[in-house]
Amino acid sequence: xxxxxxxxxxxxxxxxxxxxxxxxxxxxxxxxxxxxxxxxxxxxxxxxxxxxxxxxxxxxxxxxxxxxxxxxxxxxxxxxxxxxxxxxxxxxxxxxxxxxxxxxxxxxxxxxxxxxxxxxxxxxxxxxxxxxxxxxxxxxxxxxxxxxxxxxxxxxxxxxxxxxxxxxxxxxxxxxxxxxxxxxxxxxxxxxxxxxxxxxxxxxxxxxxxxxxxxxxxxxxxxxxxxxxxxxxxxxxxxxxxxxxxxxxxxxxxxxxxxxxxxxxxxxxxxxxxxxxxxxxxxxxxxxxxxxxxxxxxxxxxxxxxxxxxxxxxxxxxxxxxxxxxxxxxxxxxxxxxxxxxxxxxxxxxxxxxxxxxxxxxxxxxxxxxxxxxxxxxxxxxxxxxxxxxxxxxxxxxxxx
Length: 401
Hints:
With about 400 residues, this protein is an alpha+beta fold. The chain has helices spanning about 15-20, 25-40, 85-95, 105-120, 145-160, 230-240, 255, 265-275, 315-320, 325-330, 350-355; strands at about 1-5, 10, 50-55, 60-65, 75-80, 125-135, 165-175, 190-200, 215-220, 280-285, 300-305, 335-345, 360-370, 375, 390.
């Protein structure tokens, strides 16, 4: 009960909408906190000549481009979601119990943004704005402001590194749609839209120049990133200690799963800044190594080299140890390569050197050849013998040697 200015009593009324599952009194502090923290990102894109416009009565993001290529630029946008990874954050906290001092949401904030960012940069665009969407199954999820602050700060720190603003977002309570799998009681969906600018347009990479003879270069991943989480959850729940299972390096299974995704903005922009002839960029995301055959033209992607066995992230080797089939690993996880760069043979050495200047290590892993659209594994790794053929994304067939 509160008292009004004239001394009258003010009653807090719980409306029928709140009782039905959408309680804005619970959600508004979350919305206000996110807006307060995100406003710090407004000036981050200024380094690219992009200025955020705050229109108080507008539901959306607005920005002006005042850079040197005002008549020679292209805008790109990509929407993408995080997937199931934050379920693991909630599960790990649940296993650790009340003494847990970590919300495990700082990196979740980074990764939510990176899902769209690492996609939009495949055309060479510099990400400058991001709009955020969170959808929870109940309004109570929004009341943990410590978790919300970690989420927002993770997003802001990433945005500061790459020069991107978060001028708008939305949060919703979807009682009849969003249901977390037990034993987690509540875990929302996270998604968003990244907007990038390519200036001048000559830096745009559309992939149309991809051709037989191109060399496939791979940049290392930091772990599983945010793909294949559903398989990891099933396997994690079957372990005796579940996500607290210790791996050989002393970290838990859950900590390995939650390792943050790599940001490849610096790699893409660094290669373009050095004038490297790029025929295509490709993130190593869904479909695992089979993602190499993303282009629908009749190309075979022959992989003849990969990371040394001891350099492949431990989590993937552990998945093999607990019985996951090598084929499932190769068609689900990135297996240690988080980004692919396709260049003509003449640019290989320059590309590797240019990437090194920006603290990325590129290695030659294969080549593009004419033939049936597929990925051909011409080397041995993660238990797979040479000669394994992976179908393109969405393909159902499997060929044994």
